Amino acid sequence: MNPSSRFSFSPLLLALALLVWPLVGSCQYLRYVKDLNPTMAGTKPVDHAPFDALLKKYVDRQGMVNYRAFMADSTKLSAYLTTVSNTLPNEQWSKNDQLAYWLNAYNAFTIQRVLRGYPVKTIRQLGGDKTLVNTVWDQRFIRLGKDKDKYCLNDLEQRLIRRKFSGEYRVHFALVCAAISCPKLRSEAYVGSRLNQQLEDQSRDFVNDPGKNKLTPANAPQVSEIFNFYPGDFKKDGNTLQKTLNKYSASQKVTADAELKYLPYNWSLNEQK
């Protein structure tokens, strides 16, 4: 787990948070105890075509982003995110439409946050170093519906996506936090009608990327620290990290009892050079 960003929520973390809360003088930690599931009656699934067009224009096949050029279309991105903010899902949407909505929201708001602070060498420069308090992922700049409160990227990932779609570990291959070691940003938006195929494609691409996972030797592979950030998400319903790797690996398989080692996380911006 990287102490400055993504984390696996656990009883131990909660206990530690409650201990330090009086010291930091903030209820920021406690917000992560509560689920987040904003809805809006009467809405229909969002048309993600505007975001899709921007991704096709500014994201290459390696998932790298031309942020400098993207700035010229920042108003188009803002317009899409206004639509997202004003069109929350409801239970009449299919589960796939709901998940596609939140995956696109997370990735698009992340891009927007980078553009607002660009140029930077890493997204971590845009916030502080206190996990769950003042990192860039804890900054409240996201509006959801008519709620007067604003939300942060950690709210979307930790309080909403990981809980509402519990068991769908493939989200970790689709959420992109603007770093080299993150999954590749897809050069198209997620859509409910093709979501399963898109998530399968993302999973295969991530597991077989030698820059993120080195599956040899089979008994001691070096894998992405994402598997270490969220081990519990990959161990539900009899699954294991090793089974996940073998399911998507195109060639090299790891042993069932392989001792996993984790590669250092590269937080450099996922920017085209």
TrEMBL record:
Query: Per its UniProt record, what Pfam families does this chain match?
Result: DUF547
Query: What broad taxonomic lineage does this protein's source fall under?
Result: Bacteria, Pseudomonadati, Bacteroidota, Cytophagia, Cytophagales
Its name, as the record gives it, is: DUF547 domain-containing protein
Residue ranges of domain DUF547 in the record: 91-207
Ranges in a coiled coil? none
Q: Which InterPro entries match?
A: DUF547
